[in-house]
Amino acid sequence: MSDFINVSSALAQANHHHPAFKASAILSFDRTGEINTAAESVIHQAGLGNLLATWLLDNESVTLETLTSAMGEMCRQDLALGLGYCLTAFMAATNLAVAGNDEQKRTLAALLSDDRRIAIAYHELQAGNDLTAMTFKASKVEGGYLLSGCKEVVNNLARAHGLVLFADTGNDNPACRHSLFLLTQTELNQKGVSIERRFDTLGVRNCHISGIYFDRVFIADSCLIGEQGRAGEYALKAFQITRTLLPAISQFSARNGLEILTRFAQNRVLYGDNLFAIPVYRKELAEATADVWLAGEMASLLRHALQAFPQFANGYSSASKYFLPPLMKQAIKSMGSLIGARYYLMNDDFGMFEKLVRDFPVVSFGHAGSLVCQTSLVHMLPRLLAEKSQSDASSILTALNTSNTSWLSALRLSCSKSDPLLSLLPTLTARCRALFAQQAEWVSLLTDLEALKTQCFDSLQQDIYGAATRYCKLIAAISVLRNITATDSQDIHHALGFITLWRLTRPMCDPSANTYYLSAADTISHYLQDTDGDPLASLMFQPKANHSDNN
Ligand SMILES: Cc1cc2nc3c(=O)[nH]c(=O)nc-3n(C[C@H](O)[C@H](O)[C@H](O)COP(=O)(O)OP(=O)(O)OC[C@H]3O[C@@H](n4cnc5c(N)ncnc54)[C@H](O)[C@@H]3O)c2cc1C
Description:
The protein is an alpha+beta fold. It has 20 helices and 10 strands. The strands form 3 sheets. It has a 4-stranded mixed β-sheet. Strands 2-3-7-6 form a 4-stranded antiparallel β-sheet, covered by helices on one side.
């Protein structure tokens, strides 16, 4: 296990010291659209391919925590590098984890360990997010299938040694019409397979996004993943893993943006001092910091919940993909305006920030758009909000902190009734009230949080999309309360907690005249002023091993 923890440490080291990870190198590859193969081989040497392979073969042996931090470090400086190296391979691997047989898993694991690229081809231009409208055909013939059609806007096709393919195998019932296949070089090198035009993209410019065309290409029955006609079900289960982990992984890139901004604010001297001397600047900087921190807290709560309560994961993962990418995108936008005109310059530090702004949207729309996930969440909301008379907060917190190894086989298409995360709210709010009993501002904020819960339930009938947003805010708030009621929380956590809860519960209420809010912002900016490196590195919630509760 320690070897795997070393993957993220090795990548963190590379981010700081390896020439292939220097801003000048990354920006040069971004300009030319070429792949940063030197950085890719560092990632391989660090063991990320082996880590993913090990997870695929035995998902109990690698925690989601370890996967997230390793892939997060890979993406920290360059999302395009991460997407190009293995994020789409990870998506492919989740399909195999859900439905592949042992031999298929071994095949894909060998490719991952061997530093090969793996593509996943779901998308067709005419169908977009509508999986049931995919028309790429896999027609059943003796001993196998004949593939005909085109997949477009797919990453890494030209260099893929493996491909997970979503294809129409025919059925009157649209839900049973599609199947998944695993293709390797044996199939991909056949006559009749051609790589189609490359798509130019605004961001992730050195990911090679193209199409692939199959003209009546035979593949054997053994390529079928799971059972014919069940691709929709497998995809929706695999999405529960990727929609939960990918926003968490991309939070490392947002943190890199915060690190660039913090360095800028420390070093930029105006009117005889650095930018922390400007009160309004401190406030805006603290708010952007709080939003990036919040994204990490909510992402880790949902990751823990995926393992602890997989029967709710369809709802949690939709909440993750709907709420987190826009939250981080907004924070990145604010950070850009704090860097000022320099963010528009394309050299080194500031060029890295400008690249982040261009790259980050792919987190929202790649692999099912945020709005699609909001719609999915809306469908599950009545079940999530179904109230149970009693719930034991301590055992829920214990379950979140305990590694559950059998979660993968427990994923479902439906979502169970009565969300255990939401049932933490009264207990965590009460603990927080006790912690800040003397602080009127906190007491009032917690009252507003309770009102948000009431509004969420009240809007379920009349405004279900609004209820979905309020539900996500409540889950975000619970992740904050979990952090600040932990035994080792300090003033900086409390300050981040106050600002995030204000922003979640009082979006229309301008805090500029609230002295408590401004002093929380000052606590955050003092912290930033003295940091070197990732400002949030030591502020994220850390589950205690075998710890039954946070308090
Ligand atoms: C850089 C990049 C790399 C990619 N790599 C791959 C890859 O490797 N493999 C692959 O298979 N695909 C890949 N894709 C495709 C990607 O996964 C998306 O599925 C695809 O872009 C479809 O998104 P769309 O916005 O065009 O969809 P559309 O379905 O055309 O959606 C249009 C708009 O309508 C909204 N919308 C659609 N349905 C709903 C709904 N039910 N409820 C509410 N709103 C809805 C969407 O959110 C969007 O805003 C990649 C795309 C990009 C840009």
